[in-house]
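Why does residue order matter? Because the sequence determines the fold. Keep that principle in mind as you read this record.
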Amino acid sequence: MLKVQQLTGGYSGESVLRNVSFEVKRGELFGILGPNGSGKTTLLKMISGVLPYTNGNVQLKGKSIKSYSPKELAQIVAVLPQHSTQAFSYTVKETVSLGRYAHQNGWFQAWTDEDESIVQQVMEQTGITRFQNHDIQQLSGGERQRVFLAQALAQEPEILLLDEPTNHLDLSYQKELLDRLKTWSKEQGLTIISIFHDLNLAGLYCDRLLLMENGHINLDDIPNEVLREDRINAVYRTKIQKQPHPKVPAPQMVLLPEVKTIQSEEIVINESFLKINHEYIELNSPIPLRTMSSGVVGSGTGWYQVFINRHVDKNYNCSDHRREMVEFLKENGIEPGETVGMMTAVMTEDVSYQLLKGQGFSVFIVVTAGVGNAIDASNSAQHTFQLTPGTINTWVLVNGTLTEEAFIQSIMTATEAKAKGLQELEVKDQLTGTIASGTSTDSILVAATQIGRELEYAGTITPLGKLIGQGVYECTVNAIKKSRKRVKIE
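Structure:
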């Protein structure tokens, strides 16, 4: 559809672009990225024919754009610039109707039913029908942006060139616009070439990305390759971190602000932050902790400051436990949105905890454990599913900085240590008579201050893994002994 070959040029004899070459296929949503001054807008102007180039060529449908007349080019390519202006006080509909000029013939260009239908259609698509009779000067910046997009679409182009199309649009209209663009590219074969400043939107919607740097192409590839931490850090000269989108297979980037944080020696999560009453165990951290958990609330990954392990009766109705847990937290003045909350049938007084210190980091372990519903995971198929309150809840709170890998390995190491504790005490699955590996609804939390020493790994023989393994094993054994002793007494 579009082929750019060794494109060179700029302004006033100074080359902004040098030897730029790439191709865009029909129906692609092609994004152009790069820091300010990298040549993005200059490239778009050359592709559209607005700005001449000194060397190279731009081919459109196999022909040089220089061989097209302005009207012929306008029937194929439509442009939405970054800053669209309207000198005259036209209505919205009149402004959109200007996009039909390229398709009108003769000296006396008559307005046809087809023109009217297309204008009404694109106004509906861009959500501006309701103010089609309003003066465009009365609209907000975001509304005007949609009007000029409708004008470009009214040209019925095969290629749509956009310079920061989400500029001035609020979040809902950004999503709506890009959803529509993606649909048009896939269902109607519309080729879309767009400049993006928002790397996350580009990664989410584009089929391919072109990363510009100082007038050259740094990389032309799929989003997952272009949006690599080391590459974006180098080109944009800022610290970012890549992470997967939670719902779709698309890369997302987050900025890492240069803010001064509490020094590692100033805070250590330990028993001084722990409160225990007959209803629940609470750990209230002075700072948000990066967490990975299977809590009733706050599950998954996130940043939380409050951690609750709530005692419930063995006959607790689990039919709507998440809603009921949220209500319980609110009743006790605890904000659910800042909390990881778990449930256990174990008495809170039987909790076991300890702080283990390593070189430049430490680990605080908290465990509640009862074995009334112990299960051998290798024989769990023999059990019927029944949701009951968790009986072994394990907290691993690290005073240090964990990588994503270390978070996952911490869960593995803690689980192995828990299973070893059950083996040591010969805890059995009551149905199969074999040694249990856990209980039917165990829960785990790994949280880190993300301050201080970086701990890349947490496998069983790593410095962090050794402390987790020791602490979880000892606390699990101690907590089970406490619970067993209470049961005997009762």
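The CA atoms of residues 352 and 475 lie 5 Å apart.
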